[in-house]
Specification:
alpha+beta; 225 residues; NADH Oxidase; globular; four-stranded antiparallel β-sheet
């Protein structure tokens, strides 16, 4: 897949397609079919991820593709243990709501993708990172968002699993100590994508209106409460 030239002028179809992917994108859990991702589609979404902007052009990401059922089962067991840890912190009302929420699709998805951050890539002088140490981490998140939108446009689902300890996942997929695991992404074909995100549908939280998070000139503490 070749990159679109910078001089490309988007037409109406391009614009509609981009916004459609943004607003259809969901953190997918229960909708995976288990079917494999076609090789050419996987190449396209990884190419999109690798095309993300990065501080100092450091490209500090790596993508570990996980299909081994034993590895995936081990990770799922760890995630369920961490789910129990979180559940113990909740009051009775929150625990009742949380019990209805599925937090992973590790075994159901066609593929697991571990995305890691290499803070040493491009060092010692990473242009633009001297004042903001986390700029490289932000770059990895941009790559994940690119992957997510591309996958959505391709008709795939993505679920970001965050119930894990970094040291466990690092050891599980053989990352060296210098690399930080940022995400386990469940990726694969889905039956459909929910119209309403799971956390809203189950009543965990509601989406804030845009008017509450837009400020003019200076932060408004009343609006940003």
């Amino acid at each position: 897949m070749t990159n679109t030239p910078a001089t490309h002028v988007p037409d109406a179809t391009d614009v509609v397609g981009l916004y459609d992917a943004m607003f259809r994108r969901r953190d997918t859990r229960a909708e995976f079919t288990g079917e494999p991702i076609p090789a050419e589609v996987l190449d396209r979404i990884l190419t999109a991820a690798h095309a993300a902007p990065s501080v100092g052009l450091s490209q500090p990401w790596d993508f570990i593709l996980v299909t081994d059922p034993a590895v995936r089962r081990s990770f799922r067991e760890h995630v369920h243990q961490e789910r129990a840890v979180f559940n113990d912190q909740l009051d009775a009302r929150q625990a009742e709501t949380f019990a209805r929420i599925k937090v992973e699709g590790i075994m159901e998805a066609g593929l697991g993708i571990v995305v890691s951050y290499d803070a040493d890539r491009g060092s010692p002088a990473v242009l633009g990172r001297h004042a903001i140490a986390d700029a490289g981490l932000y770059s990895v998140c941009l790559a994940i968002q690119n992957l997510w939108l591309a996958a959505t446009a391709e008709g795939l689902g993505v679920g970001w699993v965050s119930f894990y300890r970094e040291e466990f996942l690092r050891d599980l997929v053989g990352l060296p100590e210098t690399l930080r695991p940022i995400a386990w992404l469940c990726v694969g074909p889905v039956r459909d994508l929910p119209t309403v995100p799971d956390l809203e549908r189950h009543g965990w939280r509601n989406r804030l209106p845009l008017s509450e998070v837009v400020h003019h000139e200076r932060y408004d503490p009343i609006r940003g409460r």
